[in-house]
Amino acid sequence: MSLVANHTLFFTNMLSLEWRIFYTCVATIIINLPFGYLRGGLQKLSLCWFIAIHAPVPLVILIRQFHSLELTWSLAPFLLGSFFMGQFLGRKIWSVWPYRKSQYSCIFKKNN
């Protein structure tokens, strides 16, 4: 049994569906910004690169459940679009202001 599924919070019911979708999309973008930024400094298609893309997915699911939104075909473009927009903007921020004082690398990297 899900911890969030049957227990909607009192103030989320007061918001209209449009506002709940809007807040969910904004939160999805904000959550994906640091992961997109982290992805900017990693080697493309490496294990850590995939982790940086997929790690925020459970957080986005929790936010969607927090706003009591079911994943439907009409909601999916908004959520996927905001997910990719957050990743894209985080990557663009890294290309403008990269953190290069000490190069970070993947913790799963093989040592030769």
What's the short version?
The protein contains 4 helices and no strands.
What is the typical, i.e. mean, pLDDT?
84
Q: How big a fraction of the residues is strand?
A: under 5%
Number of separate strands: 0
> How many helical stretches?
4
Task: Give the domain tally.
Answer: 1
Rounded to an integer in angstroms, the radius of gyration calculated over CA atoms is 17 Å
Note poorly predicted spans.
none
The end-to-end distance, rounded to whole angstroms, is 46 Å
Order of helices and strands: HHHH
- Could you say which structural class the secondary elements and strand pairing correspond to? mainly alpha
Overall shape: it is elongated
Q: Describe the biggest sheet?
A: none
What does the model show?
The protein has 112 residues and is an all-alpha fold. The protein has one domain. Helices cover 56% and strands 0% of the residues. The chain is built from four helices and no strands. It has helices at residues 17-40, 47-54, 57-66, 76-96. Helix 1 packs antiparallel against helix 2 (47-54) and helix 1 packs parallel to helix 4. The radius of gyration is 17 Å and the shape is elongated. The chain starts with 16 loop residues before the first helix and ends in a 16-residue tail after the last helix. The chain crosses the membrane at residues 20-38, 45-65, 71-90. Keywords: Membrane, Transmembrane, Transmembrane helix.
Topology:
Elements: H1 17-40, H2 47-54, H3 57-66, H4 76-96
Helix pairs in contact: 1-2, 1-3, 1-4
